[in-house]
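PROTEIN DESIGN WORKSHEET
SECTION A - STRUCTURE
LENGTH: 455
TOKENS:
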């Protein structure tokens, strides 16, 4: 079955005027959430150092490095903006695919839309198309793509960003088909080992995917060709879903209910700056702290009970000399930060905060265990139970079945606007309000260049 061609024909024909309002509204929320993460990531030393290096390479002034106060080349801007969308680990995501489309699709689309001076409606079209590709391909391989050693944000994200850029460039169906074919050839390996080991290069996966997507669409526009079967492959066994899997993929998910159900509606948002698997524990801890008003010195020990995947992926502590990436993927760190600070935002994940003796001491009091009943609920529910034993002998217990931000308990426009303001820190709040208002009315924007100029 020609899954690649069906998907690309749909994306080629996709138009803002025929999109359901729920879909284009969700696309605007994805863009707004993406901006929040840019501001949050700029608090990290590793991000600022990476930006400094990219800027030192020298480039034309084609597109804005958002939040950074300068312009650079098209691909460099997309790389920086993907990096800043990803690094603070509060990006949107798809539970059914284990991927984060926003940090690859949106930076590529924004940079190109700015350069070509396109409208907000055109940007929305591109974002929806890019998410459809990235999400559907990731879902076809989930979870075995990741278990085989790849991060779908980088791999599938490149496919999505290529289609989004192709859409903005006005490329017809045959050219867009080549764009995704080329993307499948040049996409990054995006090694899961880097994330699991806590290596800070993990933060570049969105930017690498965004830049590669621009390259793929650009080459397609110049007549370079790529396989029209890049997703499903042929008898040569060279399709993306074939070569990156230890078991057979489910390629039918690529076109399942295509045009009836938009995958962007399944995307969750994160209220906290950590891996989604930690969010049930974070939400439960913050609720107990608010309800009971205890202080860190009151805590004897903390037990977190969760599902097996979470215990495996984020149940570990932060090793000595570990990075902020290690902390983002550590329930003990997340719970300790919530108890100490009563919040979990950019400040709790900086290089300086993770080595604070107070947070290290509290992390050592947190243990994580798999709970059979919670495990049975997965993947329908990503539930966690937190039990805090106080020195007084009182035990505080809270269970969260569905963390905030899931489409079943969504973050609405007001919630994401508050996230932008929170992550913006000391920045001019009047300017932040203007950004929020502009993005929430994105379909009325005549020139994306104007929006980029004040982010």
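SECTION B - SEQUENCE
RESIDUE ASSIGNMENT:
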């Amino acid at each position: 079955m020609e899954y690649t061609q069906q998907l690309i024909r749909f994306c080629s024909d996709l138009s803002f005027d025929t999109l359901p309002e729920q879909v284009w509204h969700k696309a605007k929320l994805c863009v707004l959430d993406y901006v929040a993460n840019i501001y949050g990531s700029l608090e990290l030393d590793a991000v600022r150092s990476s930006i400094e290096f990219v800027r030192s390479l020298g480039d034309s002034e084609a597109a804005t490095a958002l939040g950074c106060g300068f312009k650079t080349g098209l691909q460099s801007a997309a790389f920086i903006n993907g990096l800043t969308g990803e690094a603070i680990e509060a990006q949107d995501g798809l539970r059914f695919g284990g991927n984060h489309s926003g940090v690859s699709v949106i930076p590529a689309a924004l940079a190109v839309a700015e350069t070509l001076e396109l409208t907000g409606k055109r940007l929305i079209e591109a974002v929806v198309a890019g998410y459809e590709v990235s999400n559907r391909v990731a879902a076809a391989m989930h979870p075995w793509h990741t278990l085989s050693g790849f991060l779908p944000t980088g791999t599938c994200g490149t496919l999505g960003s290529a289609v989004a850029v192709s859409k903005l460039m006005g490329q017809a169906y045959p050219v867009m088909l080549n764009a995704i074919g080329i993307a499948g050839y040049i996409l990054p390996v995006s090694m899961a080992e880097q994330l699991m080991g806590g290596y800070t290069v993990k933060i570049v996966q969105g930017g690498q995917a965004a830049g590669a997507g621009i390259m793929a669409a650009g080459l397609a526009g110049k007549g370079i060709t790529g396989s029209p079967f890049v997703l499903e492959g042929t008898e040569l066994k060279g399709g993306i879903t074939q070569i990156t899997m230890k078991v057979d993929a489910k390629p039918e998910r690529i076109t399942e209910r295509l045009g009836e159900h938009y995958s962007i509606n399944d995307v969750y948002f994160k209220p906290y700056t950590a891996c989604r698997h930690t969010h049930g524990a974070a939400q439960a801890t913050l609720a107990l702290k608010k309800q009971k008003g205890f202080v860190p010195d009151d805590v004897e020990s903390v037990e977190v009970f969760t599902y097996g995947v979470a215990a495996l992926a984020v149940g570990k502590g932060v090793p000595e000399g570990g990075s902020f990436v290690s902390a983002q993927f550590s329930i003990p760190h997340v719970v300790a930060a919530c108890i100490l600070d009563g919040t979990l935002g950019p400040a709790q994940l900086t290089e300086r905060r993770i080595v604070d003796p107070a947070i290290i001491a509290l992390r050592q009091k947190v243990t994580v265990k798999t709970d059979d009943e919670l495990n049975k609920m997965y993947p329908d529910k990503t539930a966690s139970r937190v039990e805090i034993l106080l020195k007084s002998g009182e035990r505080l217990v809270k269970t969260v079945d569905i963390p905030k931000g899931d489409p079943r308990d969504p973050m609405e426009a007001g919630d994401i606007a508050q996230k932008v303001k929170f992550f913006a820190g000391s920045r001019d709040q009047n300017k932040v309000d203007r950004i929020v208002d502009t993005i929430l009315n994105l379909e009325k924007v005549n020139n994306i260049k104007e929006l980029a100029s004040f982010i």
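SECTION C - NOTES
The first strand starts at residue 63 and ends at 65.
The radius of gyration is 21 Å.
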